[in-house]
């Protein structure tokens, strides 16, 4: 009986609170008349963050405004290290974050390579946001094996596709070499060439 009475009192207080809640919410903001004055935001309106607005106002780096090229390439002990440069050809800054995708074209068509993220000391760092001014570049490093074994052949390629982070359309460029399609590792994009 006591439990039922307590439940009834709780329910009654909730109903009473709901019926007077809207009246106690305070005055409803009004739209200013044509006096030309503006009103300051109320305490309930969130104030925008400058860093959030700055990063969302900058367009994503995309294939239509990117010039991709090999900046340098080194090979040692059956592993090829390539530094890639992606120049922003747009008239405005662009932003990027994450790992690019890659694919390679052989005589039989595109290989459908699935890149691995990290794997070598200079590409194991976590991704960081990058803003690229017009005419400037972002960079990333890739590694792959060019050693032919009984289980992993080296496939000759004549073109490469580079897909920037958060993009679906790749940039294609002429490039040649030999790689094991299962051995491609990439690092995150950066604003300076990784050493």
Radius of gyration: 28 Å
User: Total domains, how many?
Assistant: 2
Mean pLDDT: 79
Indicate the overall shape.
Answer: globular
Largest sheet: 5 strands, mixed
Number of strands: 12
CATH fold name of the largest domain: Immunoglobulin-like
User: What is the CATH architecture term of the largest domain?
Assistant: Sandwich
Secondary structure: helix percent? 10-25%
The level 1 CATH classification of the largest domain is Mainly Beta
Low-confidence runs: 1-53
Helix and strand content put the structural class at alpha+beta
Helices, by number, come to: 2
Distance between the termini: 77 Å
Q: What is the strand content?
A: 25-35%
Order of helices and strands: HHEEEEEEEEEEEE
List keywords for this structure.
about 200 residues, globular, 2 helices, Immunoglobulin-like, 4-stranded antiparallel β-sheet, alpha+beta, disordered N terminus, 5-stranded mixed β-sheet
């Amino acid at each position: 009986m006591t439990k039922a009475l307590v439940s009834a009192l709780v329910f009654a207080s909730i109903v009473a609170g709901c019926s007077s809640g809207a009246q106690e919410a305070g005055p409803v903001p009004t739209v200013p008349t044509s006096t030309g004055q503006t009103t300051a935001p109320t305490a309930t309106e969130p104030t925008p963050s400058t860093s959030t607005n700055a990063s969302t106002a900058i367009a994503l780096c995309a294939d239509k405004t990117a010039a991709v090229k090999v900046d340098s390439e080194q090979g040692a002990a059956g592993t090829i290290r390539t530094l890639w440069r992606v120049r922003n050809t747009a008239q405005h800054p662009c932003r990027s974050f994450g790992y690019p995708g890659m694919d390679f074209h052989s005589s039989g068509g595109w290989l459908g390579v699935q890149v691995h993220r990290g794997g070598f000391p200079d590409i194991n760092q976590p991704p960081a946001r990058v803003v690229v001014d017009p005419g400037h570049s972002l960079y990333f490093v890739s590694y792959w094996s060019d050693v032919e074994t009984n289980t992993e052949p080296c496939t000759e390629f004549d073109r490469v596709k580079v897909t920037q982070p958060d993009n679906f359309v790749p940039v294609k460029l002429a490039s040649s070499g030999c790689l094991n399609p299962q051995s491609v590792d990439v690092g995150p994009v950066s604003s300076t060439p990784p050493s």
